[in-house]
Amino acid sequence: MSDAAFPREERPSPSAARAAVVIPAAGRGVRLGPGAPKALRTLGGTPMLIHAVRAMAASRHVSLVVLVAPPDGVAEVRSLLDSHSLPERTDFLVVPGGATRQESVRLGLEALPAGSEVVLVHDAARPLVPVETVDAVIEAVRAGAGAVVPALPLADTVKEVEPAEAAGAPEPVVATPVRARLRAVQTPQGFDRAVLTRAHQEVEGEVTDDASMVERLGLGVVTVPGHEEAFKVTRPLDLVLAEAVLARRRRNDGF
Ligand SMILES: Nc1ccn([C@@H]2O[C@H](COP(=O)(O)OP(=O)(O)OP(=O)(O)O)[C@@H](O)[C@H]2O)c(=O)n1
Ligand SMILES: C[C@](O)(CO)[C@H](O)COP(=O)(O)O
After folding, report:
1. Which position has the higher pLDDT, 63 or 15?
2. Separation of CA 13 and ligand 2 centre (Å)
3. Which of 122, 167, 171, 216 is the most buried (most CB within 10 A)?
4. Domains of the chain (ranges plus CATH)?
5. Which residues bear the site annotation Transition state stabilizer (predicted)?
């Protein structure tokens, strides 16, 4: 799709065009079971990472997507980008990833050119996030938040336990956090670039998301509403759900 497809008033302003997205896609997908690296597996016949790229590029505020590929899959990811239709207004870079999600994100950040002041980090494993969520995250960063996470209330009650050494062994419950204060967070997570860069330079130790690195710096993180369809494809049943959501969208779109 070219810019000519957009009426002049809908084209991004120069400042809005500076949102860049890092997509860590270098994981193996161990919890999904044997097969190709997770981001290369297909949903509705299309690789998961192409769905994730399209979900980001659907936002007219996104001008650049940096895909962090499995280290042995850079050429394959480049050729997938070349062989699928993607909006022309978005640029793409592919870089090799690292041993952990955190390292892959850092490598993606290092590849960003000057001028990308709003940076989103989005899991390739969340292929179906709607554009409304992407735009809400970008808007909150533009409004001045240093770090933004899409979040949903929990349906289950959560227990904190003393983890057992052996899988499946009973685990003593030590606390029940008040559910009304808990949120399940998703991606894309959005950041002021300087904040995220500092977090990746200074925070040590393992984390499970980028926003928690910002929290460790003592800086603020805020939520915006997440979306049920932004769930992460982690285990085999998630693939079944993702195929069903995609089939419903295609029916609704009249495909
Ligand atoms: N070394 C890694 C590990 C993960 N990721 C990416 O981080 C996102 C979220 O990670 P997760 O869902 O845990 O993916 P995997 O690490 O592939 O899954 P698993 O833990 O089951 O192996 C995914 O898009 C994954 O490709 C990455 O870029 N580099
Ligand atoms: C970043 C994340 O998707 C937020 O929910 C999540 O923490 C990633 O966890 P994973 O174990 O790497 O899938």
Report:
1. 63
2. 32
3. 122
4. 3-150+184-252 (3.90.550.10)
5. 31, 38
Express each pLDDT in 146-169 by its tens digit.
999 999 999 999 999 999 999 999
User: In sequence order, which ranges of 73-220 are alpha helices (DSSP H)?
Assistant: 74-83, 101-110, 131-142, 193-202, 210-216
pLDDT at 116: 86
Confidence band of 10 (pLDDT split at 50, 70, 90) = very low
Give dist(CA 236, CA 241) in Å, integer. 9
- Ranges assigned E (strand) in the chain: 19-24, 42-43, 46-47, 62-69, 91-96, 118-121, 147-153, 160-161, 173-175, 183-185, 189-192, 222-225
Burial classification of residue 80, based on how many CB atoms lie within 10 Å of its CB (0-12 exposed, 13-18 middle, 19 or more buried): buried
The atom number, within ligand 1, closest to the CA of 52 reads 24
Complex-level ipTM: 0.98
Give distance in angstroms: CA of 2 to centre of ligand 2.
34
Residues with CB under 6 A from ligand 2: 101, 123, 185-187, 208-209, 232, 234
Closest-lying ligand 1 atom to the alpha carbon of residue 32: 21
Q: State residue 255's pLDDT score.
A: 59
